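We store sequence, tokenised fold; for instance:
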Amino acid sequence: MSEETKVFKANAIIFREDSTWTALVLEMNVRGYGPTQRAALDDVIGMLEAQVTFAVQMGHPESVWCPAEEKYWQMWERARRNQFVADTSDSGAPSDPPFADLVPLDLLAMKQRDEWNPTLA
């Protein structure tokens, strides 16, 4: 069978909730958690892989599309704006969460046989 590569980009924001980092993928309202930003991002990627794989195998890929609440989209926009201002003013990266500079998330999905196997690009 031929191998077909598909790429999907999703926006993620990473922020603190109490003592835990949270990574939220905005288009799908999927969260990952961890003691560090990287751990939270890795967790949300695993959640996305599982959710997308299940939805595709069940024949309902549209079911993963469930946008996060508006307040998180606004948080993402503020974080992106702050990053832009920091980058253009040579003041360095913003030191306070939330962070949106880890977006978009690239997921590489390789179709092999009759299975979908998403992996981090």
Summary: The chain has one domain: 11-103. The chain has a mean pLDDT of 76. The radius of gyration is 16 Å. The chain is about 35% helix and 30% strand.
